[in-house]
Write a structure and sequence with these properties.
alpha+beta, 547 residues, 9 helices, 4-stranded antiparallel β-sheet
């Protein structure tokens, strides 16, 4: 890249050019002088409430709310798959083949906020070699709002009273016992009437198949009542039809129909208005955290969002080498002389994964870093192109090393975070290559001010997690692959610098102040947060040369 840009610079029209006095957005190939120090203190604020996600029909990604997949008009089996069997049993009890359980409408909104304070120190070992350490202190917050059944009238199922009162289970047991008693009596009558000499069997003999079908139907209803409503304390489904609902009325009608059918055979074991105890309490706006944290619902998270994490993030230690510089690595020359030029710098280093990984007990945890050791590589080439413009082209790569982390099994996405019980295990993690390409044009206005922009393409390689454990009791999916993702972003920034003035002995301090605003443009592959970033950075130099 350095050779190509050099050729372009030499072929440019000749005229008097001003050197690049003010830096700008992103990385550049500026090298510290020997013995010089650069201290960097910055504030970086990342915020997003939207994500790019693949289109269901294929062909690119769409941008939508962070928790858009959780917003449901009727939250039921689509939110809690473990209710699927209950829904099947209720379809039997109600006689409605399309019956859907609903806890009400779920309104989901979320936002992630991250504040990072990077502290960097760079030292010029020689005119062409420098060392840098960057230590970020990071704080992350997730603001999660999951409102279930806000108006209170959108649900058709509520809390099963057998989990609050033993009397409800006893009432349900009587209903089932009455059904079993009627079924036993009719079965005995069918057996008795098999004898041709038996009397009082006209109804059974008129249609013996119908009598036998009634026995079978009653057994099915009794089993469904037991499974859904429960016949003892803490039994049955957690959610059942609410009192006065259409489903509860249909269940009562089903039992009433059985009573009428048995009466044709002279069996009166089922009393009038016999029905299992209905729900009288529905979940309200705070219901989702209750579902997520209570292990009796079959999930078992300790918390659900609205949490804060803070601490030291991943630490970078790097060394930079100036490969080529038409300014001869002379800082005064590049700041004070009118000439075009090219310079190229190569940086390598190591990232210490000190940030830690996800908190498995929180479904929406936002870590303060990847927490993985990584090999770092960066190549940056600067081209002074005209009187007021210069350009930096950067390629960055980070290859995380494999490690083991705690994970929740089975693996799940945001949309199905309540799909199965939480089981914590450890997994082998293999993160894909992280690659950035950045093109940053810079415009200076005199010696002090400049504006800049950048086009950024960022790619995350495929991530793999493998929690295979022969001693584990979890028979569910233990492998997961996160597909590669790509995002494009644009940045703009303004800079105030005293470096050129300091080199001419017109300023007392050598310093730069930069502000950068970055917005996402598009993304492809998997789910990618649409992060909007603001960065304010102060650079202070010591040992900087003067003319």
């Amino acid at each position: 890249m350095a050779a190509m840009l050099t050729w372009a610079a030499l072929c440019a029209p000749s005229r008097s050019l001003t050197a690049q006095a003010v830096s700008g957005v992103g990385d550049d190939a500026l090298q510290l002088p020997r013995g010089g120090m650069r201290y960097v203190l910055a504030g970086l604020w990342n915020d997003y409430d939207q994500v790019f996600s693949p289109n269901a029909s294929g062909g690119g990604s769409k941008r939508g709310p962070l928790f858009g997949a959780l917003s449901l008009e009727n939250a039921g089996v689509n939110l809690l798959p473990r209710l699927a069997e209950t829904q099947v049993q209720l379809r039997t009890l109600t006689g409605q083949s399309s019956y859907l359980m609903s806890l009400g409408r779920l309104e989901a909104a979320g936002e992630v906020r991250q504040s990072i304070a990077p502290l960097g120190i760079e030292y010029g070992v020689t005119r062409r070699v420098s060392l840098r350490v960057l230590v970020p202190y990071a704080e992350s917050r997730d603001v999660t709002q999951l409102l279930l059944n806000r108006v209170g009238s959108g649900a058709n199922v509520g809390l099963n009273p057998t989990y609050q009162s033993g009397s409800a289970g006893a009432d349900n047991a009587r209903v089932v016992n009455n059904l079993n008693q009627a079924r036993s009596e009719l079965s005995a009558e069918i057996t008795r009437c098999g004898n041709a000499m038996a009397t009082g069997c006209d109804a059974i003999r008129a249609n013996p198949a119908e009598a036998q079908a009634l026995v079978t139907r009653t057994q099915t209803v009794g089993s469904a009542v037991t499974a859904v409503y429960g016949t003892a304390a803490n039994s049955g489904s957690r959610f059942i039809p609410i009192s006065g609902s259409g489903a509860q009325t249909s269940v009562a009608q089903t039992i009433g129909t059985l009573r009428t059918d048995f009466a044709r055979y002279g069996i009166t074991s089922i009393p009038e208005q016999s029905a299992p105890a209905a729900a009288t309490t529905v979940l309200g706006p705070g219901g989702i955290p209750l579902l997520a944290s209570d292990s009796s619902y079959g999930v078992g998270y300790q918390r659900l969002g609205n949490t804060r994490r803070a601490g030291v993030g991943d630490i970078d230690l790097t060394a930079s080498v100036l490969l080529y510089d038409t300014f001869g690595a002379d800082q005064v020359k590049r700041l004070t002389t009118a000439t075009r030029g090219v310079r190229s710098q190569l940086t390598g280093g190591w990232r210490f994964g000190t940030a830690g990984a996800d908190r498995t007990e929180d479904a929406f945890d936002v870590p303060i870093g990847e927490g993985a050791n990584a090999v770092l590589l960066r190549s940056t080439t600067d081209l002074v192109w005209s009187r007021t413009m210069w350009l930096s082209a950067t390629i960055r790569a980070a290859k995380p090393l494999g490690d083991r982390i705690a994970v929740v099994l089975p693996y799940r996405t945001t949309a199905d975070f309540l799909s199965a019980p939480v089981t914590v295990d450890d997994a082998a993690r293999s993160l894909g290559m992280r690659t950035d390409i950045e093109l940053a044009p810079r415009f200076s206005f005199g010696d002090f001010f400049g504006v800049s922009g950048a086009y950024i393409m960022r790619r995350w390689g495929e991530d793999k997690y493998d929690a295979e454990n022969l001693n584990s009791s979890v028979p569910l999916m233990s492998e997961m692959t996160v597909p590669s993702r790509t995002m494009q972003a644009a940045a703009v920034g303004v800079t105030f610098s005293t470096l050129a003035s300091y080199a001419r002995r017109r300023s007392r301090f050598a310093a730069e102040v930069m502000y950068t605003h970055t917005v996402p443009i598009s993304a492809s592959g998997g789910v990618v947060p649409a992060v909007v970033s603001d960065r304010l950075e102060l650079r202070v130099y010591t040992g900087f040369p003067r003319r």
